[in-house]
Amino acid sequence: APSEEVEPLTSSGFRVDVLPSLEVNFLTFNTHGVFKSLVLRKAVSSAIDRSVFEKFANGYAASVSQYVSSGVYGYNPAISSVPYDLPLAQSFVKQFSEFDLIPIKLSFVQGLETAGDYIVTQLRLIGFDPKVTYLTWDDFRSALPDNQSDIYFFGWKSDLGSASDFFLNAIHSVNVSRGFGQYNAGQYSHNKIDNQIEQSVHVFDDAKRLTMYQEIMKIITLDDVYGVPLFESQVLYASNKRVNFHPRIDGYIIASDID
After folding, report:
1. What is the pLDDT of residue 146?
2. E strands along 30-168, which residues?
3. CB under 8 Å to 130, separation ≥6 — which residues?
4. Chain center to CA of 153
5. Angle at alpha carbon of residue 66, lines to 213 and 152, rounded to 5°
6. Is residue 153 a contact partner of residue 108, using CB atoms and an 8 Å limit?
7. Across the strands, what pairs with 14?
8. Dist CA 44 CA 76 (whole Å)
9. Whole-number pLDDT of residue 143
10. Rounded to an integer, what distance in angstroms lies between the CA atom of residue 170 and that of residue 164?
11. What does the buried/exposed string (b/e) look like for 42-61 if buried means 16 or more CB atoms within 10 Å of the residue's CB?
């Protein structure tokens, strides 16, 4: 159920259950253009107030500090959200352009206009001249190889309960022949991370592999700033109170679970 339908549903006698979706939404940078600069990537990260997205979703979303949900294998509890600091972000941008706005392009999927408008406003406040395009998912996905935008709005769902798919498909450098980086929209590349991702596939000690994953998460979130983690959406289930239904964390609805 969409969040705006919660009150009418509860008023009509339905029970509403709220579960985490395991899908984290974030911005990712094109690291071959303006945002080749780590300082400018840090500027964007500091310019976004993550708590705003909870308000946009009427409280049915949670701000996040990294690219997977807590409970997902690879989540690093030592990582805190980057503080919202507009003056700091402005000072970063002024290192590159003190008077003129820096033109940048953003690509969002249609339906994210509210979030897009907020992000555009924040980027303009710190010294960018952002132009955003809203595309259907098919057009958005088809345009990824062209790498024409400077910032993309992405979502990633950890269906398997592990960060491994995210690392292999969105973080690893693009390598078509080996099947790496097929969703690496910004052509992000980091040799140390590539090596650790590839090595982790062959590490069967859970504790050791978790340590490797958590180190990768720290680097891409705080040190090298792959993108800007924003929020985790939540899934709302409405059911008749006469039915004994408890939704599953994996999102499947199985008849045997309902009585």
Report:
1. 81
2. 61-63, 102-109, 128-135, 151-157
3. 104, 105, 106, 119, 120, 123, 124, 151
4. 7
5. 110
6. yes
7. 240
8. 22
9. 86
10. 10
11. bbbbbbbebebbbeebeebb
Is residue 206 within a helix (H) or strand (E), and if so which, with residue range? Answer: helix 206-218
Please give the structure tokens belonging to residue 45: 């990260």
Query: 251 is written with which tokens?
Result: 């999102």
Q: Which residues, 6+ apart, have CB-to-CB distance to 209 below 8 Å?
A: 200, 203
What is the identity of the amino acid at 18?
V
Token pair in block for residue 5: 């339908």
In sequence order, which residues have a C-beta less than 8 Å from that of residue 144 and are 6 or more positions away?
152, 183, 185
Q: What does the pLDDT read at residue 242?
A: 63
Q: CA-to-CA distance for 80 and 155, rounded, in angstroms?
A: 20
Structure tokens at 20: 């985490």
Helix, strand or coil for residue 18?
Answer: strand
The encoded tokens of residue 105 equal: 């392009």
For residue 17, give the nearest of 233, 238, 234 by alpha carbon.
Answer: 238
The 10s digit of each residue's pLDDT in 130-179 is 999 999 999 998 888 788 899 999 999 988 889 999 999 999 999 989 99
Q: β-pairing, 151-157 with 102-109?
A: parallel
β-sheet bridge partners, residue 25: 155, 231
Residues of the chain where predicted confidence (pLDDT) is lower than 70? 1-20, 234-259
Task: Look at the alpha carbons of 144, 150, 154, 156 in this order and tell me if their dihedral is positive or negative.
Answer: positive
Q: Tell me the chain's radius of gyration from C-alpha atoms.
A: 20
User: Could you tell me which of 42, 138, 167, 149 has the C-alpha nearest to residue 95?
Assistant: 42
Q: Quote the pLDDT of residue 7.
A: 56
| Integer Cα distance of 167 and 213 in angstroms | 9
CA distance 88 to 205: 41
